[in-house]
Design brief:
The protein is of the alpha+beta class and 250 residues long. 38% of the residues lie in helices and 23% in strands.
């Protein structure tokens, strides 16, 4: 038995030395572009089909859908672009279910580009929201809603609609939902995106939803529809700060 243990120890040492001494040398490397130059028998019919899609796609993404009255970006704890986008989630969710929703929320990380002042195209919205997330409506108990806003307070803000939140020292100082004090036993309806509903970005409490409605609607399309509705009404994207989330020092 002692001899076996000795052999195992020696084998382990030898293997460790071998691994530590192993080296990899790059002999050569070359970038090879693989494109239609290697296609000996190009399919003209297929090329025509692809080209037609390219033309149509290019025309669609360059289509103007509205106009923004000012430059809008993302800043904590609250800023114009998250406010505007959260409003669009709220409005769309309200149109989907009787009685509507109580509030909406979205994470700053889902917004990947500002909206510039001037004409807005489909392409601009793809830059703002490049992900394929979908609108989700949740029903959540008030005590769990409180946990959601505790996380928002710790992390310095989020895009919200129909919420008034004061944060002091990374904690909730005051919270109103639709102008009313949060009730722990009440069921609240929340418009958000599937990414957050699945508990990402620290939104673990959202996984406790007593009911979940998957709308099947892309969040980006909800944003575009909201902008197009403003345009149809002869309006620009124009939103003012309204202190939805505030940091207070005293």
């Amino acid at each position: 038995m002692k001899l076996l243990k000795t052999r195992l120890i020696l084998s382990t040492i030898c293997l460790s030395v071998f691994v530590l001494q192993a080296q990899v040398h790059l002999v050569s490397a070359k970038r090879l572009v693989v494109d239609d130059r290697y296609d000996s028998f190009p399919n003209k019919a297929m090329s025509q089909v692809l080209n037609s899609y390219k033309i149509r796609l290019g025309a669609d993404v360059s289509r103007t859908i509205g106009e923004c009255a000012q430059y809008m970006t993302v800043e904590a704890p609250e800023s114009l672009l998250p406010d505007f986008l959260a409003d669009q989630l709220f409005l769309k969710a309200n149109s989907l279910i009787p009685g509507g929703v109580d509030f909406s929320l979205l994470n700053f990380g889902s917004i990947r580009s500002p909206l510039r002042k001037g004409l807005i195209t489909v392409s601009d919205l793809y830059k703002v929201m490049p992900f394929e997330n979908e609108l989700v409506i949740l029903e959540l108990k008030g005590s769990d809603v409180l946990s959601v806003f505790k996380n928002i307070a710790r992390n310095g803000g989020m895009g919200v609609s129909h919420v008034k939140l004061e944060i002091k020292g990374e904690k909730i100082n005051s919270l109103l939902i639709n102008g009313k004090v949060l009730q722990n036993d009440q069921i609240y309806r929340i418009a958000t995106m599937d990414y957050l509903a699945d508990g990402n970005s620290g939104m673990y409490a959202l996984r406790k939803a007593v009911k979940r409605l998957n709308s099947g609607l892309k969040v980006r399309n909800v944003y575009m529809e909201g902008i197009e509705n403003l345009t149809a009404a002869g309006k620009k994207i124009d939103i003012q700060p309204d202190s939805r989330i505030n940091w207070i020092s005293k």
